[in-house]
Amino acid sequence: MSLYELERDGKAQELIRLLRESDNERVKTRAAELLGNFDDHDDRRDVVNALVDAAQSDSDAITGAAIDSLDELGDDAITQLIGSMAGVDLEDDAADWVKAKAYMQVLDADVPELRMAAANGLGNLDQADAVPKLAERFEDPDPRVRARAARSAGKIGDSRATTPLENVLTDPKAAVRREGADALGNIGNRQALQALLPLYEDDDERVRRIAVGGFGNFGNDRPVDYLIEALSDESAAVRRTAVYSLIELLSNVPTDQSHQIRDTVVEKLSNTDDRSVVVPLVEILEESTQAAQRRNTAWMLGRVTSQEERDRVIESLVDALGEDDQMLRQFAATSLAELGDDDNMVERRLLKIVQDDDVDPEIRGQAIFTLGKVGGERSRKTLDKLIDETEHDVIRKKAFSAISKLGGRG
Length: 410
Description:
Elements: H1 3-8, H2 12-21, H3 25-35, H4 44-54, H5 60-73, H6 75-86, H7 96-106, H8 112-123, H9 131-136, H10 143-156, H11 162-168, H12 174-187, H13 190-196, H14 205-214, H15 224-230, H16 236-252, H17 255-270, H18 278-287, H19 291-304, H20 310-320, H21 326-339, H22 345-354, H23 361-374, H24 377-389, H25 393-405
Helix pairs in contact: 2-3, 2-4, 3-5, 4-5, 4-6, 5-6, 6-7, 6-8, 7-8, 8-10, 10-12, 11-12, 11-13, 12-13, 12-14, 14-16, 15-16, 16-17, 16-19, 17-19, 18-19, 18-20, 19-21, 20-21, 20-22, 21-23, 22-23, 23-25, 24-25
């Protein structure tokens, strides 16, 4: 029976026997690889014990396969391996600091796969004291270890990792730079974010995307110029990320700064020929669950939309008028007014809302307000009639205000 058939038929004990007793290194390596698929097996404990033993063999190939399989089996399996190597009995209820101490000891192991496993494990433990030890691995000869150490430092999020991570950003391996950029974005202090700025023009697309994604965490307008530059990136993914970061930035800065930054963003966007920003803005408005993001997006759409995307933007903003968020409705209304209505599309859509008695009066009132900005003779006549027929004071008041801007009652 082949090794594949043993794995397919769930013959864990037979694979364990081959791992322990075979004289063929390739067979033992393959057995170790396949045992990583036995997470739900009744013999899982035996599987883990066998892989822990194999991970400490003299063969790099067998060791690597065993560690990968233990990683597949979960944190408890890796923890058992680390405890065995460190000479510590790490029970399931062992304190995190005890586990972290054992993991840090194994970070100095000769086998890179073991250092990788230790780095991974530390990322799952919220132990800030592990950061200096992880930082030592940022210069590990194996790029896989460097990448995992950077990732784990970012997960822990301790600011002591910031300066060492800055050096990771110049690593010759793009995968390591990506992890370093992501880690700095997670830490998110001023120094960390500042270090990300030059990466908007890194050679690797994913590095650029990760860096640009971190710019939205700033609490000031420092990254605006970089984000505007990123809107012209050759990668569509980077451009879309830049749009999301611009909106996130507006949501994060203090209120007294957000107006100025919004004006700066609109000015910058008005001077660029790249109009691909509108589609992701519409997606944010339609799909985001963050109120501040949706409000800023609704405001922005009225100022950066070109004629080519106008129809879709109007539909999205009109739909936003029906939301529960009053401020979002206001921003959507003002943006519809900003877009104008040369083709009467906005007027037609809003009149449907205004004339629908089943629509909430507050929403109808918002639509009436907008008609006062963009409506024509048809709107004036509809509102004139509505004033006499409506039973809602809110709607009547809004209609009086709007019709005065459209030439008054007939």
